[in-house]
Amino acid sequence: MPTSTLLTWLKILSLLVLTVCNHYSLSSPNPPPDDNERECYDGEKEADPVPRISLWMPPVWRNMMHAFTLIETYVLICRLHPELIYPPIYSFLVPNPSTISNIRFTPSFYLGFALIFSGTVLRVLCYHLLGRNFTFELAVRKDHELYTDGPYSIVRHPAYTGAYLWVLGLQFAQFGQGSWWRECRIWKTGLGLGFGVFFVILCLLVAGTLWTRIKKEDEVLRKVFKDQWISWSHRTPYVILPCHWHGCGSSLLPKWQLDVPRASTYCLRRPTPIPRWGNFDDHDQIQMHWNMKPNQTLGIDPDSAGNGLGLNVIIYIS
User: Fold this and answer.
1) Domains in the chain, ordered, with CATH?
2) pLDDT digits (tens, 9 = 90+) for 53-95
3) What is the DSSP string of 239-276?
4) pLDDT: which is higher, 106 or 298
5) Strands across the sheet with 257-259, in order?
6) Which of 39, 143, 165, 192 gives 186 a disulfide partner, CB atoms 3.0 to 4.6 angstroms apart?
7) pLDDT at position 103
């Protein structure tokens, strides 16, 4: 078998693997939760924005990516077996037949494939570890347990890490150098350009929605699991990426605001004197006013137990 033929079949096999990855990354492992299981989130001032798009976004995106990979697979098969070419369809998919030889393995495809595959594996692992508690809609299920082992001991939201890896990988594998969309110059057609714009908007929408959702999820989990979540956030300060986006969940909030349970005593601890005391208001919220360096994090000491008069919380800067 010629080397070019072997590489073409390997590219076809890789595209089929990506099809499977796209399917699992965008398919919820469990049915939607009941309304009463969503009350912890829907009762907030701002409802979870994800359900507004969760009904149509995953199937639309999944089918869209399936179409892309299957089209590229069909074009590659036609390169090996010209007798399978159906002119009305083929001429639309490949406006310039001389460009079909440019669909090939490239460093961009290798990188995209690795990102998509690793992101999917991470998400499927999270599906398995959380079991029935993993849903695409924010909810606290009956007998819900806070899982803190495995990838959840490295970052608090590894499934979102997998989602970001998957989205980033799509840019390289299915829209980068060596792909059907780029090499056959589909992006220069009106339909192809419109699809590209739609895809970029969809990526930005999902990325922004997940960012908002992460903050909300941390806030609700802290209220539901209290000291258990606080202890976990102290052991696992990173949200999405290790050594980045760190803090005690609420590090994502503006002005370093941190909600804490109502307490009778607040005290502060730091190796060096604090320039200015925090402002303690009547709404169970502490807003730190001193200047913080970029690498400092704000957290709660989970070992500061109550003394019979109320919860004694120690706020520390590390």
Assistant:
1) 3-235 (1.20.120), 253-317 (no CATH)
2) 666 778 888 898 899 999 999 999 999 999 999 999 999 999 9
3) SSSTTSSBSSSGGGSGGGEEE----SEEEEE-SS--SS
4) 106
5) 257-259, 285-287, 279-280
6) 192
7) 93
How is residue 269 written in tokens? 């601890």
Instruction: State the pLDDT at residue 244.
Output: 61
Phi-psi region of 308 (alpha: psi -120 to 50; beta: other; left: phi over 0): left
Q: What count of Cα atoms within 13 Å lies in the side-chain half-sphere of residue 34?
A: 4
The DSSP element (H or E) to which 316 belongs, if any, is strand 312-317
Q: How many CB atoms lie within 10 A of CB 156?
A: 25
Burial class (CB in 10 A: 0-12, 13-18, 19+), 139: buried
Q: What is the mean pLDDT of residues 146-159?
A: 93
Q: Are the CB atoms for 99 and 7 separated by under 8 Å?
A: no
279 pLDDT more than 50? no
- pLDDT band for 204, please (50, 70, 90 cuts): confident
For residue 280, what are the β-bridge partners?
Answer: 286
User: What is the average per-residue pLDDT within 5-16?
Assistant: 94
Q: What is the pLDDT of residue 37?
A: 66
Helix locations, the chain, DSSP H: 3-25, 39-42, 50-54, 57-80, 87-93, 107-130, 158-173, 180-183, 190-225, 227-235
pLDDT range class, residue 14, cuts 50, 70, 90: very high
Residue 2 CA to chain centroid, in angstroms?
Answer: 41
Long-range contacts formed by 228-237: CB under 8 A, 24+ apart: 228/146, 229/146, 230/300, 230/302, 231/302, 232/146, 232/148, 232/156, 233/156, 233/299, 234/299, 234/300, 234/301, 234/302, 235/148, 235/153, 236/148, 236/152, 236/153, 236/154, 236/155, 236/156, 237/297, 237/299
Q: What are phi and psi of 296, to 5 degrees?
A: -85, 150
CA–CA gap between residue 316 and residue 148 (Å, rounded): 23
